[in-house]
Structure formats: structure tokens, C-alpha cells
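Record 1 of the preview.
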Amino acid sequence: MKKLLYIFIFTFVAAFTGKAQLDRSQPPKPGQAPTINIGDYSKFTLPNGLKVIVVENHQVPVISWQLTLDIDPVMEGDAKGYVDLAGDLLRAGTKNRSKAQLDEEIDFIGASLSTYATGLYGSSLTKHREKLLSLMSDVLLNPTFPQEEMDKSLAQYLSALPIQESDANAMVDNLISSVVYGSEHPYGEVVTKESLGNITRNHVTDYYQTYFKPNTAYLVVVGDIKAKDAKKLVKKYFGKWTKGEVPRKNYNLPSSPAANKVALANREGAVQSVIAVSYPVDLKPGHPDAIKSSVMNGILGGGVFSGRLMQNLREDKAYTYGANSSLSSDRLVGRFTARTEVGTNVTDSALVEILYEMNRLVNEPVEQEALTLVKNYLNGSFARSLENPRTIANFALNIERYNLPKDYYATYLEKLASVSVEDVSAMAKKYIHPENAWILVGGNKADVAPRLARFSEANEVLFYDAYGRPVETTEVSVDADLTAEKVIEKYVEALGGKEKLLALKDVVMKMTTSMQGMTIEMSSTRKAPDKVLVTTSMGGNVLQKQVYDGSKGVVTAMGQTMELSGKQLEDMKAQANMTLELDYGKLGYELKLLEVENVGDKPAYKIQVTSPAGSSVTDYYDLENGLKVKSVSSQDTQMGPMTVTTSYEDYREVEGLKFPFLIKQQAGPQSVDLKLVSIELNKGVGDDVFSIN
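->
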């Protein structure tokens, strides 16, 4: 039975010339670090323990209020996701207002109010400050976490998850969490379909009742308000918030691997790989190394176009559009990561260059010119950040939370200016570990895995799924006498048999899917031997129509008709063939049985099918029942090649033949679930249905 693939296709330059003649052969000498006036702030603490920071700024009549819980991360276990869900649901309704009422009242005063797992943020015009505070305090003190709203949020979370299964960047993000931090650390937990399914309302309410306490919170007030007025308002609206004991957690510091390890998440059919070299570091906010190490990382690849990774991988090798590195500080554990996205064919070559640049930074002193360039960049970034009043608030919050020296930020430029070549070398030796790293790749296993093992001390590649979970290698081996043709024969029998398929003269299917809250209807009509009509509609209006009449194919959309040719015509012709698998040999298709690979938790035969024109698709057939469970192909789009993954589920028998009643498709960032709502066989469909003229 032919697969159904429905794809929803989706300077400024200024030059300055000086009047004076300058000697441009020598870089300018750095001047003396300027004195920075960070600005002052007021602070006070309520009797309930709420710590308040006020940054006055009377330039515009706006005030913002940001409340932040100073708590340790929570291990969520098999219900990972409930902490973020609790933050989302904080403003989903209170004892006094429904979510709709909250939204209406916030909109009426032109304010904003958002909530998250560790607090909430609100902003409004000065004249609406009390109204906003009454809403914020209601949200903070009286949330009800309605089950109905929770179910909606969980459904949204679940609908977004499938994107990760074909997004190599998301795969590598999950690998960083799971392998760099490990399963015993809160940063190592990854949201999955199973973990979301385990979340109950009790998880959400318990989190709120345990951690939302004033004695572990900071309230930062920024804007058009005097400190004394802020104190009165904070007492009025947050003074009744009851304090309580909040648990503290101690977590072991994750360690780097003793020698390099390679982990790969398979993105079937991918033509590009996402690469990351990553490991944990012990670097706390405000540490004496923080500024010096940021300069060192800037030279390697920290946001500066002249960074060595960018210059090597993009400018010299032309492997990528961008490459960067980051060295983050954190109260629990920081992290180093070098990252890029390259073509599959240069995945190993790009890794060689990343490790080369890391080693070079450790072993060779940097050039003074490069050091000066990065310091100037960081100097300018810091100066620009001071234009935002919230920067001052964040500085104040950091000083209080992390017990930093009061002049930590006021002397930032002075400390930056003092960073030397020797300091950079010392930081590289301390924080850059090209031989004790996780090498993480999201890409096509078949193409890149054989070339990655050499980067591992153990000469092996560890395989993970899209959510950072180890993939258990199946113990099922392919028998020597088993061929792709025999797997196809078993599939045909599983569908109902060759005789039943050959007796199929026409098929009419109706399907539905939901996109952005709207219902889309799809209809597929096929007639033997090679005619097909596919229409996509919404609310009775046809959005797109595809027709193949046995020789010519066209697509009509938005009043315009385009005749198909090349690969598009070939795909339409194949879709029209209801018994394509029976005709593979006659039509000149090449079949190759690759291996046994798990699809979900079940082993499946993996077969590469190549058409006479050279188009290739990888199909997976369940070992136990023989049915096709997944197909992976690459489609050319205006945005470049796009991997399309289609899953076939919920097979049901109709008049002796089996059809998948649920087809899930992932094409780039778009995820679609097609549900079969009706199917009719051998109803005598006429040729006029497929008329093109």
C-alpha cells in the first residue's frame, strides 16, 4: 500500500573617512578604563522576609515589578515538566478572577503580566501601578490552577514535542542535558511524552505551596517611582504573603569524562549535522575568573565574528554559516560548549577543526591584537547594556543574590582592561579541555556514525534518541538469506495479501488534522492503475488540489495552477500507484535491506528504496507484524533540503485490507497528525474525477 505524504509547504553599510591622515599600520593603544557610574538603588526587607530592590528611573512614566524566587532547582523525576507547567498556570485563574477576566483587566490598562516557574513579571504606566499590583498580588497569592487550563497547557506541550524528533538542534540540546549533567542532576532531566503523561495537578500545587514563599524571594522594582512610595505599595499588596520554610537541595558537581566520549542522536535522512563539544565547569557567578574567562572564550568563539571558530569553520573552510562557543557560570554548575551546524559530509572534518582551535588556545599564547579586539567588543557591549534601566536592576539583584562586592559592576571595565595575554592562557588551561569532553552530534547515523568513533577514546559511538535517552541496540540480526524483497512480501501479506491488493480498483479516503486551532480536511481519491486526486480544504473552501491523470500532474492553489515536472511529478505518479510495493521490480526500483533498528521500543527492518530517477526513501517494517511503521525522505524546498518523517499507526482492517488510521508527519518545524475518518473501496470512481483540463 503506497505511503501518503502530505507536506504543508511552507544594509545598511556606512563608510567613514577621516580628514586627518592616520597611521593604520598600528592598532590604536587602549586608553585608560573609564569610571562607570552604575547608578544607585534602594533596598529593604518586609517582615515576611521579602527582599525588595528599587531602581528609580523617572525618564518615562513606566514601572516594572519582577519577583524572583531564590530557590534550588527541583528534581522532577518521571514527571519532568511540572515545574514549568506550574509557572505557566500561575496566571490561569485565581480565587477572584478567571483567566479570561485576568486577561481582560490586564489588557484594559495596557499592561503586561507574565508568570514562570520562579516568579512573575509585570509592567504598566505609572498611573496604573496600583491596578497592576492588585492583579499581580491576586495571581501570586490566590492561584487556583484549574484542571481545565492545565489540560490545555499539557496538550500544547505534547503537540510541540514531536518537533524535537526531527530537529537536530533540539536533539543536541537534550543530549547536553542528559549526558553533560547526568540523570542525578536537575539540569540533566529532559521533558518527554511519558513524563508529561505522569503530571498531575498535585505536582503543580505541591510545587507552588512548597516554594512560593516571600522569605526566599526578591522583588525588583524599576521605573518611575520613589523608593518610599514603592515601600508603601509593596507592604500593601505583598505584606500578607505568608513566609515558610523552603527546602534546600545539595547536588553533586557533574564531572567531565576522563577521556572524550561521542554521543549521537539519529536524525534519519539529515543532510546536515549539529555538533557540540561540551562539558561541565565549576564556575560560579562573580568568581574572580569570570571576566578573564569571558575574554578567553571571546577569542575562541564567544559572539565575536573574529572568533577563531568562526574564522576557521566559516571564513577559511566554508563549512558553516556560524560557529560559536560559550562559557557559562552558574550557582550549581557552569558549562563550556562549542557548537556549529555543518553538512553531513564534513561532520568529522569540522570536529577536527573545533578540537584543533581548542588545543591551540590552550597551548599557544594569543595575539595582543586579538585580545584587544575582544576586550573592545566586551567594553562596548557593557556600555550599551547600561542604557537599559533593567540592567541596573539585574546588577543589583546579582549583587544581593550572590553576595558580590558592592563595586563588582562599577569596576567591571577596570578589571576587563587589566586582562593580559598571560591571563587568557591561564584561563584556557583551566577551562578548555579538548581531551575531556562530550562530543555530541545530531545527524544521520548511517552517514556520520562510522566517522565519529575515532574521536572517542574508546573508539565507539554511543547512540541516544531525540530526548537524550540511551538507545538500546537490538539483539536481532538480519539473517543472511533475508532480503528486502522478502520483507516487502511479508508487508503485503500483513496488509491482506497480494490477491486483495490487486483486486483494489479505487480508494477514497477522508482525513482531518488541526493546525493553529483550525480543522483542515483532506481527501484522497485514487484509481488503478495510476490516477490520484488530493484536495486540502478548510471550512468547505479548497485550499489546494493535486491531480495526476495517468500522464500529467498539476497543483492548483490560491487560484494558480502549476504543472508538475521532474521529482515532483515522479512523487505524484508513485502516490497514484496503489500497489507500488508489488511493482517495485517491474518499475526498476532498487531495494536495499540495511539493518534492524528500533522504532520506538520495537525492532524494525530498515529498507532503502531508490526510484529509477534516483529519489530515495527509507522505510521501516515492524519485525513482528510486518507492517510499515515509518518512512523518512528528503524534500527540496525554498529553504533547502528538508527531512520528512512519516509514522503510520493504528492499523485497522477495512474489507479485508489494513490501513493506518493515524499518520503523523514531521516536516521541518511543522508537525501534522492526519486522522482517517472514512474510507471507501471499489465504489466505481470515474475517470472524469481526475480531469485536468
